[in-house]
User: Fold o-succinylbenzoate synthase from Thalassobacillus devorans.
Amino acid sequence: MNIAEIRMRKIEMPLRYPFQTHAGQVNDRELIIIEIMDIEGRKGFGEVTAFSTPFYTSETSESAWLVLRRIFLPAVNWHQIVHPSNMASQLSIWQGNRMAKAGLEAALWDLYGKQLNKSLSQLIGGSRSYVESGVVLSLADKLEEVIANYQNEGYRRYKLKIEKYKEGQMIDEIKAYAPSLPLMIDANGLYEEKDIPYLQSLDSKGLMMIEQPFRPGDFYLHQQLQNQLDTPLCLDESLTSLADVKQAVLMGSCQIINIKISRVGGMTEALAIHEWSRKNNIPVWCGGMVESGISKAHNIALASLDGFIIPGDISASARFWERDLIIPEVEVKQGRIKVPLDPGIGFKVDEEYLQFVTQNSYIFQP
Ligand code: OSB
Ligand code: MG
Assistant:
């Protein structure tokens, strides 16, 4: 792909509202932006979406920075890369660090689209011109107020983070003023085996699904729960590869798959998961990482594939940011986002703002 230079930036973007999870509150989002330039000066952009603490997966933005700088960047045989998927095979000798791998691969996909003058959606075989959009409600949000706001954009799926044992009541409250709101909860693995009776009490609430009730790795416990629930289970943290997805589905540990490009190590693996799920009639949706527009753009392309039949965590730029890194910003109208047709990610990167939020830069020349 004639790669001349790779630049990594550590950035910090202020969130419009604090994002509250069980593990604390995020006010400023730390991210790594990867920029890969070819010999003609075309640039591809990717994003490493690891958080500053390992509350979601074991990677952090700092661990990803180190692994990229010390191990991945020097070890890739850049001259042998003729297609973005070559990156995954070259990096497959190393365990884990999937978000670091995914960010690098993302920049290659954007660049590849620009070199071929094709949109990312077109490159990967996307068939939709709009993707359906869902939104996550953080624990810090005043539910009634934010739901009223989000209804203007017409979001097609609302996701509630859990506050153990309070969610039953929260769901009832929401249903009281918005009875037909398409609602799901995401437990981020906080329930334990002893909570199975409580989870059964949620079965009558009409949830679209329950995401990641137990800790990752516990396919057996998820299977036990799914056997006792009508509400479909969806796995997130548990699924880091196609192999995990096959295991979960074939064991009956879940009925729905959350695909995040970052969690599975890149677009190539995400495409393989989508393909297998489609052949096996397993519904998939695209997860989110409180990410910038660069990563949202990659998600929009992914979600334009056939198998993405459930609205994803792909919200408007304004859901998180006063100002986003892309032009134009992502907009949600009537619960949908238009899939851009321009080459690569299809949005222009706001390089002036990118420079403004950059804290630290590292340049590597192959
Ligand atoms: O589990 O999907 C998750 C945010 C941080 C860590 C984990 C998760 C999330 C989200 C964010 O749910 C969804 C979004 O970005 O819209
Ligand atoms: Mg989740």
